[in-house]
Amino acid sequence: MAEDVYTLVASANDGRFALDFAQGQDLTSGTRIAIDLDGRWIPGRVEHVPDLYPNEDVQYLKNERLPRTTGGYYFLALEGGICGLCVGMKVRVL
Question: Apex CA 52: angle with CA 84 and CA 68, to 5°?
């Protein structure tokens, strides 16, 4: 495992996470990382889906009010399980 520890920040590229600085390296789908969960490093990878997070906008379809969603990145652990990525998380790039 790489020894460099980074902090996730909002990227200068809308909708992405970067390492340490907004103009730093962006995380993209397939990037292998480990996240620090209460002192335990969990290996896995970054993934993206087009409809992960609900947003405040609504759309109307056949007179029904449906919540709209927006895409987002999440963490998929090698041993199973998923976790949303958040600004301030500590990560290592594998």
Answer: 140
Q: What is the pLDDT of residues 39-80, one digit of tens each?
A: 999 999 999 887 766 666 555 555 565 556 667 889 999 999
Q: Based on the structure, what is the number of domains in the chain?
A: 1
Structure tokens at 3: 């020894």
Q: Which amino acid is it at 37?
A: L
User: What's the CA gap between 63 and 52, in Å, rounded?
Assistant: 24
Could you tell me if residue 1 is inside a domain?
A: no
Q: What stretch of H or E contains 41?
A: strand 40-61
Global pTM value? 0.78
